[in-house]
Each structure stands twice: as C-alpha cells, then as structure tokens.
Automatic annotation (TrEMBL):
This is ABM domain-containing protein. One of its GO terms (molecular function) is catalytic activity. It holds the Pfam family ABM. Residues 4-92 form the ABM domain.
Amino acid sequence: MSEVAVVAISVAKPGFEEQLREAMVGIVGPTRKEQGALQYDLHRDLKEPRRFVFVERWESETALAAHAGSAHIAAYREATAQWVEHFEIRVVTKIA
C-alpha cells in the first residue's frame, strides 16, 4: 500500500478557540505513537485564528483507518463536537 497524506481543517465556533486548541494539542502525542503514523502536526491559521489545520502522513490507508477508529480520536470527537463550526478533511497521495 502507498503512503497517504491528510489535511484536516477545523474551524472553532466563536469563543471556543482555546478549548478546541487544547483538545487538539492533547491528541498529538498519542497519535504520533500510533502504528503507521509518519507525521502529525497541528497548525493555526495566522489570519483566521479560529482555523486549525492538521497536516498528516500515514504509511497506508489502513493505518489512517485505524487512527480514525482509535479510542482517543473517538473521545476527542465527542468532547469537541459542540465547539466546531466547520470540519473538512482531504485524503491525498503524493504524485510528484
């Protein structure tokens, strides 16, 4: 299987920026320890501070699927559901 990359964008509801940021920072460590995780970095938009961007690289789609089904991601989703105004995820593969 080939490596996949992910760009995941979350926009916090007004007033929930710091709660969402803290929750996101909290999943970085456990995720980086997952089997197949090659890169898992959290960024914040300089011009739109409510917008957070994860840039991820995974060994395979199987590794990404395991991550999506992990206990810490399920707990994160449940805890932050009311704080997120918009969520978008793109799974891509490098071509050049």
